Amino acid sequence: MKKTFDCVEMKRKAQERIYEETKDMSREEELEYFHKAGERFRRELEALREKKNKARQKKASVTKARKKTSVKSSLKSKKS
Predict the structure, then answer these.
(1) Calpha distance 30→16 (Å, rounded)
(2) How far apart are CA 42 and CA 75, in angstroms?
(3) Is the pLDDT confidence value at 80 over 60?
(4) Given 5, 41, 48, 67, which is the most exposed site by the fewest CB atoms within 10 A?
(5) How far is the C-alpha of 18 from the C-alpha of 4, rounded, in Å?
(6) CA dihedral of residues 25, 28, 34, 40 (deg, nearest 10)
(7) Which H or E run includes 24?
């Protein structure tokens, strides 16, 4: 089986990038760096959750509309 994604390689690259960005920072600067990164991550997660919820709501409304149409169709056929 051929690997399409190497998680360990991704982790190492991320660690290297973070090290390079923070190596000359004071402890306070480093804390601020990670605090900002955490905030960005939380905002990204929230945006993804909102997108997922909107998709669910849309799917639910489509399903509900289909059920109404189906019920109306079956009622019409029973009347005929």
Answers:
(1) 15
(2) 49
(3) no
(4) 5
(5) 24
(6) -110
(7) none
Residues 6+ apart with CB under 8 A from 30: 22
pLDDT at 79 over 70: no
Q: Where are the alpha helices (DSSP H) in the chain?
A: 7-22, 27-79
Beta-carbon-side half-sphere exposure of residue 50 (alpha carbons within 13 Å): 6
CA-CA distance, 56 to 72, in Å (whole number)?
A: 24
pLDDT at residue number 62: 82
Q: State pLDDT tens for residues 3-55.
A: 788 999 999 999 999 999 999 999 999 999 999 999 999 999 999 999 999 99
pLDDT at 72: 64
Tell me how many degrees the CA angle 60-65-75 measures, rounded to the nearest 5. Answer: 135
